[in-house]
């Protein structure tokens, strides 16, 4: 019988979080139980979940293949068809393009794509709901693999950043005194589920979890005079929310504003460009991959530090805590960050 020496508990738990089949879940739990309890045999672990000793022999031998094969080929009994595609060719192309960028480019506060996050993107962006296995297949067909090395996202080179800083200095010097310089950005705070926590020894507690990616969406701005304001958004980030975000500071600071922002598609959309062209708004797009030059990012960093070690049961709790934390944000210095004058 296989010893599962080449398959760690962490590997099994990662796969367990991805599967969407009750039988596969029970099998993986049997393997995890065997790995975590030293004195337990594979047969005993299998019996805890209602499986026979002959099943245990076959299943644990099969799990050894996880070191060399995609887990879908190992943990499921047979290929299962997902829901027929309802994406148009154009929508599929947009989905593939989004997958090859950071989730932040699509408005998600997440470092990398996962199956639940990609599924959530399809629901919110196109109104199409697939099972997780079908989404996983779409991701694989798009050229991504969970077994490959982590992608290294594009980072702006120093020359591009220096050129932008020089251009920004010149633009700032050319503006009249009535202009207010602003940095704007957006973030999502996801209502995450609890996976690991401390429990008394000998207990195997269960917790209610959800596969939904419920979140609150926030738009924010910080001015060169040290003022900040933040707007909750009830919809996905798009050109309309960007225009509202540009319109709000005009009410606060006057029509003449110079705005520093990144290259997210909803910031660079044609509708946003046309809105700015018809107003005294100056848009200063940062070089791609230069988050460190956007002062508004510092606000989100402070927010994440405040909320990072707390668990919220509902969106209302998360929203109240986020807005309360934003009231105590220490405004970053725009000029120090953008042009590094100090």
TrEMBL record:
Pfam families: DDE_3, HTH_33. It comes from the Archaea. The keyword Transmembrane helix does not apply. Residues 111-166 form the Winged helix-turn helix domain. The lineage of its organism: Archaea, Methanobacteriati, Methanobacteriota, Stenosarchaea group, Halobacteria. It comes from Halorubrum salinarum. Keywords: Plasmid. GO terms for molecular function: nucleic acid binding. InterPro entries: Homeodomain-like_sf, RNaseH-like_sf, RNaseH_sf, Tc1-like_DDE_dom, Transpos_IS630-like, Winged_HTH_dom. This is IS630 family transposase.
């Amino acid at each position: 019988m296989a010893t599962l020496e080449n398959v760690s508990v962490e590997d099994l738990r990662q796969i367990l979080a991805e599967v969407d089949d009750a039988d596969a879940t029970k099998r993986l739990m049997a393997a995890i139980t065997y790995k975590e309890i030293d004195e337990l045999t594979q047969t005993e672990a299998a019996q805890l979940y209602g499986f026979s000793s002959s099943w245990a022999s076959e299943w644990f031998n099969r799990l050894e293949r996880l070191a060399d094969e995609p887990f879908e080929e190992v943990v499921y009994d047979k290929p299962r068809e997902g829901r027929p595609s309802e994406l148009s060719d154009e929508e599929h192309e947009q989905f593939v393009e989004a997958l090859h960028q950071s989730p932040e480019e699509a408005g998600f506060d997440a470092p990398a794509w996962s199956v639940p996050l990609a599924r959530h993107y399809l629901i919110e962006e196109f109104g199409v709901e697939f099972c997780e296995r079908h989404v996983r297949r779409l991701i694989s067909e798009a050229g991504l693999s969970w077994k490959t090395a982590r992608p290294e996202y594009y980072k702006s080179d120093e020359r591009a950043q220096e050129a932008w800083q020089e251009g920004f200095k010149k633009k700032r010097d050319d503006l009249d005194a009535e202009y207010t310089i602003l940095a704007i950005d957006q973030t999502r705070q996801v209502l995450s589920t609890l996976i690991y926590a401390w429990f008394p020894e000998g207990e195997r507690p269960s917790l209610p979890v959800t596969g939904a990616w419920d979140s609150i969406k926030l738009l924010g701005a910080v001015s060169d005079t040290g003022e900040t304001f933040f707007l909750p958004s009830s919809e996905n980030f798009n050109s309309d929310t960007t225009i509202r975000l540009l319109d709000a500071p005009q009410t606060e600071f006057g029509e003449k504003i110079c705005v520093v922002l990144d290259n997210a598609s909803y910031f660079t959309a044609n509708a946003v460009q046309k809105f700015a062209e018809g107003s005294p708004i100056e848009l200063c797009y940062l070089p791609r991959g230069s988050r460190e030059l956007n002062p508004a990012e510092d606000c989100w960093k402070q927010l994440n530090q405040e909320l990072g070690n707390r668990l919220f049961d509902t969106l209302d709790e998360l929203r109240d805590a986020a807005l309360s934390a934003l009231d105590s944000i220490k405004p970053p210095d725009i000029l120090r960050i953008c042009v590094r004058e100090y």
